[in-house]
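Tokens as discussed.
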């Protein structure tokens, strides 16, 4: 459906470093010389415990922060050099799904309003045209019949339903790449598999690339082709997802596997 649009847009991260400097000259290296390529239509997982640098890396990829050194390219776009207008165009192509579906939605806005705004602001659609597409997107993310959800407020939805609305809002821009930052970590175990399956299905149906960020190696197995394991900002292991899961070579990767809860493993 959209594979032709993404066919020339690999995400190439080269020697990316992000250093935060404190008031008294102290510094913390959150991302340390990270390189990887996410091929068009592919799915790469960034895996690590809290503080490993994976969410910082996501903010760099989305243009929310600038690196200290290194480069990010998405197709022919040099992300690290973008300014306001360029970032606006980039954000149409690259959308983020946040960890917290409760904090990601304005409690005063209906589902229809939330999903329609990106179509009007970033794609120039009329209000009428955007309204028609809202219902298509709700059905795409499994909220059916769409008429039962379009005029609801976030507090009237479950956590899983809210996260599907967040995904629909990301899709409203018709992006090439979705960056999903711990998208199931705040959901009940019973809801996680459904959201992961949705992300996997959207890749196939829409030709999306996916950068999936998680502390859970086995949830990454559901939706990713390959993974990078981050520890203190550095890549300590990378490769095919199943290969890394079955034959980890780094002690840190083994520790992450040992920490996986049984219900998550069953869902994977």
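Sequence:
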């Amino acid at each position: 459906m959209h594979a032709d649009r993404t066919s020339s847009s690999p995400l190439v991260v080269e020697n990316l470093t992000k250093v935060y400097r404190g008031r008294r000259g102290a510094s913390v290296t959150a991302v340390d010389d990270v390189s990887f390529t996410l091929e068009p239509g592919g799915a790469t997982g960034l895996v690590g415990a809290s503080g490993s640098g994976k969410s910082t890396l996501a903010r760099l990829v989305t243009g929310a922060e600038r690196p200290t050194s290194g480069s990010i390219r998405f197709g022919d776009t040099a992300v690290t050099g973008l300014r306001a207008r360029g970032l606006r165009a980039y954000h149409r192509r690259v959308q983020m799904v946040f960890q917290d579906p409760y904090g990601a939605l304005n409690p005063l806005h209906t589902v229809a309003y939330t999903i329609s705004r990106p179509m009007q602001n970033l794609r120039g659609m009329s209000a009428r045209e955007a309204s028609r597409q809202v219902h298509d997107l709700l059905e795409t993310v499994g909220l059916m019949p769409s008429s039962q959800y379009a005029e609801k407020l976030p507090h009237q939805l479950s956590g899983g339903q809210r996260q599907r609305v967040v995904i629909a809002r990301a899709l409203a821009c018709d992006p090439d790449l979705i960056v999903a930052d711990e998208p199931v970590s705040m959901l009940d175990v019973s809801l996680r598999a459904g959201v992961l399956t949705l992300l996997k299905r959207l890749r196939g149906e829409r030709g999306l690339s996916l950068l999936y960020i998680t502390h859970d190696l086995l949830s990454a197995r559901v939706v990713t082709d390959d993974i990078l394991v981050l520890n203190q900002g550095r890549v300590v292991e990378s490769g095919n997802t199943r290969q890394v899961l079955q034959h980890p070579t780094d002690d840190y990767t083994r520790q992450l596997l040992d920490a996986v809860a049984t219900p998550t493993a069953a869902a994977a």
